[in-house]
Amino acid sequence: MSIFLNKDNKVIVQGITGGEGTKHTALMLKAGTNVVGGVNARKAGTTVSHVDADGNNIELPVFASVEEAIKETGADTSIAFVPPKFSKDAIIEAIDAEIPLLVVITEGIPVQDSAYAWAYNVEKGAKTRIIGPNCPGIITPGEALVGITPNNITGKGPIGLVSKSGTLTYQMMYELRDLGFSTAIGIGGDPVIGTTHIDAIEAFEKDPETKLIVMIGEIGGDAEERAADYIKANVSKPVVGYVAGFTAPEGKTMGHAGAIVSGSSGTAQAKKEALEAAGVKVGKTPSETAALARELYEAL
Hints:
It catalyses: succinate + ATP + CoA = succinyl-CoA + ADP + phosphate; GTP + succinate + CoA = succinyl-CoA + GDP + phosphate. Pathway: Carbohydrate metabolism; tricarboxylic acid cycle; succinate from succinyl-CoA (ligase route): step 1/1. It holds the Pfam family Ligase_CoA. Belongs to the succinate/malate CoA ligase alpha subunit family. By secondary structure, this protein is of the alpha/beta class. It folds into two domains: about 10-130, 3-Layer(aba) Sandwich (Rossmann fold); about 155-300, Rossmann fold, CATH 3.40.50.261. Helices cover about 35% and strands about 25% of the residues. The chain contains nine helices and 14 strands. The protein has helices spanning about 20-30, 65-75, 85-95, 110-125, 165-175, 195-205, 225-235, 270-275, 285-300, and strands at about 10-15, 35-40, 45-50, 55-65, 75-80, 100-105, 130, 135-140, 145, 155-165, 180-185, 210-220, 240-245, 280-285. The strands form two sheets. The protein has a seven-stranded mixed β-sheet with strand order 3-4-2-1-5-6-7, with helices on both faces. It has a seven-stranded mixed β-sheet with strand order 9-8-11-10-12-13-14, with helices on both faces. A hairpin with a 3-residue loop joins strand 8 and strand 9. Helix 3 (about 85-95) runs parallel beside helix 4 (about 110-125), helix 5 (about 165-175) crosses helix 9 (about 285-300) and helix 7 runs parallel beside helix 8. The chain starts with 9 loop residues before the first strand and ends with a helix.
């Protein structure tokens, strides 16, 4: 079992002919992902050469639009490797085509573009689940990867992971590689994102194969506090948390666009306290968090 993504998903790549699109299409295919084509209006009607997970040479068709790609291939998932200034249009195109899952990797998309796209999706009935932007995407180990997470960190297992940070996603997967993961999602750290901690935690709670949930947050905003309230009211499975930024100076913007701290709201300590009040075990470092997760899992 998994959430949002499995081996049966048919994936298209918006920006398949660009440098990042080319590189990561190859890596996704190597991970076993069922990539069925790509989108680039200027190169519609051509194909791109790749190698599938079994080492066979394949030609992937390039389509003029997401709508055409869905019609021709039955795709239900798209990943966008599109430069920031064109990303809003790419997201809108995917929403208009009503693709069920869209992963937006791009960093540096203007916040007003993300806000517009998010509102547009809601207005259209929220038929598209968006993961990102500015994120590593989603991986269900042993089945499919839609994103840039290294495929060889870990195998399948009982842990569900949702994280604001890409690099901390990879580290946590490595720390707990002996246990393995049902699905790992990097949701991104921008102020406006599609899928939230709560969305992922709700799905993990319903997934019978996920026995324990790890959530990684960071300073700034109130997403972790809201997740704590949700966990307290709705989640029966053990949850372990980590909040990046315990040593961050107050009032300074750190890294991700969303990570700004004012007063006590948004600090790592405030988030830790909110999570612990909801029964979540919180580690001070990624390694300590992994150790807590292992202890809790062994006690199940």
